[in-house]
């Protein structure tokens, strides 16, 4: 009999990709995906630990399953991902009805764990070694990816895919759990990456986004020598069918001129870079142990402007980090004004157990101050984004159409016109009135109106030369 699985994914692109892999694996084991926990024999929660709020949401979702499990003891519940690795048995204590806890480096063991639970062997846990639990090579080996398994049906659109090129992180920014939950930085072998990209292209994928926590630090050494991200992009660029290549997230210190020149010279590479600054204050950056000063970030930023003048750069900021004064915060505001980022993801600092900041620094910025700074920085960023977008009115951009926009997801499937959404080569969101058949096409769209995060336009009927804004 076919079994059914429901999966809820929160967090970053890595988790989205992990869920895709898990589902591909489970389908091979006879599972079918359903949309609600009610219909499912197996309920999976792929979790995130980056901020407390993400964890609390998961614990509250789990709490709601207490009665479900009591009434349906045969339903199996699994907690996957970063929170599984970070909290381990704590999850069994807080939610004793959970059957399986699986860290992000152990996802390949899920089918076997399900069999054990089914066989009455009791609840199961598979997590990777902690950073200090043994020799670096052993710890690294305990964080495995199982990337070659793909299920195109689980992707948000069939034309776009994530491809992991690196796992883990060795930067140890003082606020961040990732080096603990995802383990040591490891670059995947180029041959594996290329063959996976070829399969994606054969499946009709037009855009590949390479994933890594510090993706531009990617390195793989073998007997034939060393491959870096620039060399990898050159090889991926050769694959027929792929139209766009992106990579996220970049680490400011590793943004070499050679990489930027490669992005400039390879037409499939999107002129879009996500390079989080995190703060505009040297004192805060030092406490975060980011490894650069504001002047060094600016040097890197000017290098981007110099090599790829039309590049769109986005950033992340943490507001209210330990000891952040109003003056420090105003320096983050100034950095947004100066760099005029395409967009910024802004987060309020959240203490994470096991990090250096949690051990050594005081979380001394009051909650209301964090919220107010978040609001202020977002307003400045939105103004900057809108000012740039206003300049794009009247221009024509090349859009990879993803599908109906959120607004029209539930529109009548036979309606002649629906609002469609897609992205420019620079990762700007575009909506226009069109039809569902346009999904997966690359179209020239004339921009008529804008908001701070969206360009609104109409499809050009005639071929025009697009500009890569
Ligand atoms: N609190 C708030 N934001 C955080 N981030 C990482 N750790 C924390 C934390 N403890 C943010 C950083 C990072 C993004 C993915 O999440 O800005 O770039
Ligand atoms: Fe976390 Fe810093 Fe690594 Fe990014 S570079 S994943 S913020 S430790």
From TrEMBL:
Keywords: 4Fe-4S, Cytoplasm, Iron, Iron-sulfur, Metal-binding, S-adenosyl-L-methionine, Transferase, tRNA processing. [4Fe-4S] cluster 2 binds at residues 169, 173, 176. Residues 155-387 form the Radical SAM core domain. It is found in: Cytoplasm. Binds 2 [4Fe-4S] clusters. One cluster is coordinated with 3 cysteines and an exchangeable S-adenosyl-L-methionine. [4Fe-4S] cluster 1 binds at residues 12, 48, 82. Its EC number is 2.8.4.3. It catalyses: N(6)-dimethylallyladenosine(37) in tRNA + (sulfur carrier)-SH + AH2 + 2 S-adenosyl-L-methionine = 2-methylsulfanyl-N(6)-dimethylallyladenosine(37) in tRNA + (sulfur carrier)-H + 5'-deoxyadenosine + L-methionine + A + S-adenosyl-L-homocysteine + 2 H(+). PANTHER family: CDK5 REGULATORY SUBUNIT-ASSOCIATED PROTEIN 1, MITOCHONDRIAL TRNA METHYLTHIOTRANSFERASE CDK5RAP1. This is tRNA-2-methylthio-N(6)-dimethylallyladenosine synthase. It comes from Neorhodopirellula lusitana.
